[in-house]
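Appendix B.2, paired examples.
Example (i):
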Amino acid sequence: MRDKKILSYYGFSIFFPLFVWLPVFYQFQKLIGFSDFQIFSLQSFYYWFFLFIEIPTGWIADRFGYRNTLIAAAVFLIISHALVIAHPSYLFFALHYLFVALARSFASGTASAYLYGLLKINGRVNEYKKVEGAARSYGLAVKVFAWFFAGALMSWHLTLPYWLSLFSGALALLFVLSFVPQRKIRIKNSNKPMAFKQAVISLYHSPFYFLLMLQGVGVFVLARICQVNLFQPFLLERGFSVGSLGVMLSVMTIFEAIGSKQSFLLSKRFKDENAVFYLTALMAVCLFFLGKTELVQTSIVWITIGFALFSLAAGLAFPIQLKLLNDFIPHEDYRATYLSIESILGRAGCAFIIGLMGEVVSQGKTGVFFQSSALCVILGVLLVNQLIRFKIKKKQPL
């Protein structure tokens, strides 16, 4: 396999998720007149819509090809940003989130399935964790630069972050057009008419795999709460300027990139399923610390340390969790579908939690929300991890 195939995957991984507007979208929507209720209702809508389309889009990827599906994802991403630029109203923002959800759902699971299949057919599957971690870290490194200037860019021209995100989506489309077609990386090829139904039913007979998914949900929910949905109002409550939001997100991203790049090193000390649990626990402790400690309320140093350590743990956890899910796929032909199921569980948790955030933010209680979310997640993943260990100990069928 020529390295340019991996380089194309790196290019897609860098530009597809590069949302320049992410550090400032809360303030952007405030500036155009949205209330906290409207802002968080839109985010909740995004996750609920994602919830209903995630499994069907995973099945579409398995049936019609990973490359074709990723092309569609890039096109939807371009459309989503064009809508905000054309008319930044509540309706068009709802459509924006709808198309972002479509784009992310078509790519979620599909990109990972493409890379795993590409490496497996070339006898290099043992490199998956390293390549996936590197792709994630490169993407995060570019985000650091873009997000550092997000506040200044929005001050210069209100919609400029969305213009740059549209351009990034176009670059992602160029990279995905060079991907290897599905037929050249498929191990099996049994695209039966009932593939979707069979994939969903077969999960019932794979309880161990379902537990692995649930463990990953904890990582996903904590990361979204801390790094996307609440970090902006959390910092603004504590007197941070709009320009500093991008700087803080850049700091978080640097540490997440470091973790992603080095995640394969943890395999030398811990079993993957245990490593994910320990890292989730560390993330929960950091979130609880950010919400509870009085010193954190006024100290930029402690806030930065808390976010940085949280992001390092998240960066370490994601590639390990993806490797686990790919290694224990019950059926090769349904790889993207199965990977989408974990994503849908994560989005379901986020959709429920974010629906409560409007009231929390309006009352200035983001810190309390950090604490309660951390406690709920750690209790949940502790239970799931014990069940995983029990099944491994009893050597039950995977």
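Example (ii):
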Amino acid sequence: MLSIKTSEAQTFLTPQEVSDLLRVSVYTVRRWIKEGSLPAYKVGRGWRISEMEMASWLENRTSSADPADGR
């Protein structure tokens, strides 16, 4: 039997919720998932994104952006 012990419950978001938070199209979020860029889990017929993993992913994306790039 698989037992996962965590100090707190994880929150999972749908692609639509992620798109609303990041103010991008849901199609963009789905593309990130398909490309393997954004970590996500297949649950039934849909996808779920860990809120903690999304925050880490977003931090890594913004910190890796070149400041001289002008964005």
